[in-house]
């Protein structure tokens, strides 16, 4: 939540509209008295504060409000708004604790960039100064914060945890947050996708085997439980485990012992178990496809991770993070994000949740320019649906180039028709053709 403090109604509305388009939530104060009342309440993420009020041009009211703000909300970054002729006043404000200042008239893109930077740095500082580690989980949605609050309380215990949520919501990151905030943080965190382990390989993968235990066992191998000793084992997609393997898993969870294949001696293991699934386990218990005793063994604590469409207010934060991270990992300059692009991204349904958003952003950073617009975020699903263009394997650049070539071939070189097939504008198509060195057919 960003607080806008200015006695000019037109400026408040202008700033509010700009921030809304960028995906932020706002509150307003028309004078220092109202602002101070709000500042005494819940903490804001950032404050945009004018320096002069009424007929005053000295900025004394603004400086006084800033000083009181830093008393009640010392960690909240404040960006000052001042006139061209008041640079000295802005410098005084910086000395009093302001994060930054902008002069009237301001450039919207520059101001948004400074707001984004202030929020990002403040988020990092909060995590570094806190004993609780999020483990890279991004967002300030109320439901997410409630979940993290529960994680903070249960992490120091050894209670088994079941994380529920759709695919792509970040269940693995929540499991990791539990581990890094636990007393087992210095021991291994072992992740296992049970959905990818067949019934025949379950015992070998989970319990290990001795040399010669079966054909092809040319050497002894540790299982996942032994690897996780003294630490945390994360069992993802536990709803995909068949009944025979459920029995074997239950025995380990009850007795904390297992027997590697080809060995006759029991091994003891000290682990904390965190499980996750997108399946309806209670229904599976009713249908007798999931053991009731195992269900109650793994869900002493149950966490529900909301889908991305249930926490849309976090989308701008996630987009900015993915844009920055993707650009830096590719050695590119961090591009700006246009308001129309951000508005478009906040309205999508996201059946693939955060994973889908991340893929869309990474693709846009690779194929877009220094300023990302709505057309840069056309989804791969849109491409297939519009023109039935199937994308090949390879890098994202390869996929992009091949998709354009297929669309041009299907449209017989007609750029307007090809752009419709791809779900982008003709201008964007032409720009991307130049990027990939594709000549018009």
Describe it for me?
The chain has 441 residues and is α/β, with parallel strands linked by helices. The protein has helices at 9-21, 32-39, 60-72, 87-95, 108-128, 142-154, 171-180, 202-207, 224-227, 243-255, 281-286, 292-298, 315-329, 339-347, 353-367, 380-387, 396-410, 415-422, 426-436, and strands spanning 2-5, 26-29, 46-50, 78-83, 100-104, 161-164, 189-193, 208-209, 221-222, 232-236, 257-258, 267-268, 272-277, 301-304, 336-337, 371-372. Strands 2-1-3-4-5 form a five-stranded parallel β-sheet, with helices on both faces. A five-stranded parallel β-sheet has the order 7-10-13-6-14. Helix 17 packs across helix 18 (415-422) and helix 18 packs across helix 19 (426-436). The model is unreliable at 380-394 (pLDDT under 50).
């Amino acid at each position: 939540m960003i607080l806008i403090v200015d006695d000019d109604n037109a400026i408040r509305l202008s700033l509010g509209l700009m921030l809304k388009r960028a995906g932020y939530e706002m509150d307003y104060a028309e004078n220092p008295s109202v602002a101070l009342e709000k500042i005494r309440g819940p903490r804001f993420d950032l404050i945009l504060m004018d320096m002069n009020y009424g007929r005053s041009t000295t900025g004394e009211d603004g400086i006084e409000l800033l000083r009181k703000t830093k008393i009640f909300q010392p960690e909240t970054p404040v960006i000052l708004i001042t006139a061209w002729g008041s640079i000295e006043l802005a410098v005084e404000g910086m000395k009093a604790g302001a994060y930054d200042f902008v002069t009237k008239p301001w450039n919207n893109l520059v101001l948004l960039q400074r707001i984004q930077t202030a929020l990002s740095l403040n988020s990092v500082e909060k995590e570094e100064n806190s004993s609780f580690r999020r483990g890279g989980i991004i967002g300030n949605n109320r439901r997410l914060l409630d979940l993290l609050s529960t994680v903070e309380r249960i992490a120091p215990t050894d209670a088994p945890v079941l994380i529920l949520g759709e695919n792509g919501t970040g269940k693995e990151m929540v499991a990791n947050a539990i581990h890094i905030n636990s007393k087992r943080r210095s021991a291994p965190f072992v992740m296992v996708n049970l959905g990818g382990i067949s019934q025949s390989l379950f015992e070998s993968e989970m319990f290990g085997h001795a040399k010669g235990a079966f054909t092809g066992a040319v050497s002894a191998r540790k299982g996942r439980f032994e690897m996780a000793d003294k630490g945390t084992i994360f069992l993802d997609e536990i709803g995909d485990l068949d009944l025979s393997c459920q029995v074997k898993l239950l025995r380990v969870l009850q007795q904390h012992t297992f027997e590697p294949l080809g060995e006759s001696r029991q091994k003891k293991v000290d682990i904390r178990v965190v499980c996750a699934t997108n399946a309806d386990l209670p229904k599976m218990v009713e249908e007798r496809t999931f053991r009731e005793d195992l269900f109650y063994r793994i869900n002493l604590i149950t966490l529900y991770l909301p889908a991305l469409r249930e926490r849309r207010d976090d989308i701008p934060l996630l987009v900015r993070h993915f844009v920055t991270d993707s650009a830096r990992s590719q050695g590119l300059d961090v591009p700006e994000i246009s308001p129309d692009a951000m508005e478009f991204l906040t309205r999508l349904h996201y059946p693939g949740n955060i994973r889908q958003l991340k893929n869309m952003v990474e693709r846009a950073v690779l194929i877009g320019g220094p300023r990302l617009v709505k057309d840069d975020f056309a989804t791969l699903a849109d491409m297939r649906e519009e023109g039935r263009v199937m994308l090949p394997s390879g890098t994202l650049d390869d996929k992009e180039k091949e998709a354009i070539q297929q669309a041009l071939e299907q449209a017989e070189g007609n750029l307007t028709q090809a752009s419709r097939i791809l779900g982008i504008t003709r201008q964007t198509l032409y720009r991307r053709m130049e990027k990939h060195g594709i000549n018009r057919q």
